[in-house]
Amino acid sequence: MAAIGNCGTVTEAAGFDAAADVQRLRGAMKGAGTDEGAIIEILAHRTIAQRQCIKEAYKQSVGKDLAEDLSSELSGNFKSVILGLLMLAPVYDAYELRNAIKGAGTEEACLIDILASRTSAEIKTIIAFYKKQYGKDLEDDVCGDTSGMFQRVLVSLLTAGRDESDKVDEAQAVLDAKEIYEAGEARWGTDEVKFLTVLCVRNQKHLLRVFEEYQKISGKDIEDSIKREMSGCLEDVFLAIGLFL
């Protein structure tokens, strides 16, 4: 698939010193103004694990919660981003999903970005945090704000049932490619369920073989076919699944 690639990551800061970072953060929050540049320089360049160490060191040395102190000093979107950096990944994902769902409209792009890219274990953890934090079932909330085949794809992803082995069944890969082709390019109209069954259930290595076989059968890239056969959020979620392989 043309768009397949690795997602960027924050690497561990060399010579990491949680105590020194705490002192720099305290200095950034002292006085009449807040040194937002210093806060960015520290928190945006530390891994999740390092940021958790900074939170603990801050509480130990200051006797206060770092997130609460930053919350009182910052505002707007910058505040939201910085507080998000201090959360564990599943907690932040649950927070983002909740914000995407509540209110007058739904931010479908956020739902897609998170649910299409997380492992089964990560999704299960997100669901548990969501239930604990908001007292609601994530699947119920997603279903309440989405509809149609897009909803069915999200529900499938929320089951966290994707095969995550490295096994590639060559015969099944050929069959999957053939079924996707016959469900889309080879017919009038599109049978989206066939795409769901393959893209939301098969493991990553198997899907890569499916896409190779699809290219042979159809003479087209699976990404191009999805763009021709789908539209809107359904197109976006199927493309995202391929992107994060």
The major beta sheet can be summarized as:
none
Termini gap: 9 Å
How do the SSEs run, as a string of H and E?
HHHHHHHHHHHHHHH
Low-confidence runs (pLDDT<50, min 5 residues)? 1-8
Assembly type: single chain
Average pLDDT taken over every residue: 91
Instruction: Note the overall shape.
Output: elongated
Helix-strand category: mainly alpha
How much β-strand is present in the residues? under 5%
Q: Considering DSSP H and I runs of 4 or more, what fraction of the residues is helical?
A: 55-70%
Compute the CA-based radius of gyration: 22 Å
Counted beta strands? 0
Tally the helices: what do you get? 15
Quick rundown:
The chain is an all-alpha fold and 245 residues long. The protein has helices at 18-29, 36-43, 48-62, 66-73, 76-85, 89-101, 108-115, 120-134, 138-145, 148-158, 170-183, 192-199, 204-218, 222-229, 232-243. The longest helix is centred in the N-terminal third of the chain and has 15 residues, at 48-62.
Describe the 3D structure.
- By secondary structure, the protein is mainly alpha-helical.
- 67% of the residues lie in helices and 0% in strands.
- The protein has helices spanning 18-29, 36-43, 48-62, 66-73, 76-85, 89-101, 108-115, 120-134, 138-145, 148-158, 170-183, 192-199, 204-218, 222-229, 232-243.
- Helix 1 packs across helix 3 (48-62), helix 7 (108-115) runs parallel beside helix 15 (232-243) and helix 11 (170-183) crosses helix 13 (204-218).
- The chain is elongated and about 70 Å long.
- The model is unreliable at 1-8 (pLDDT under 50).
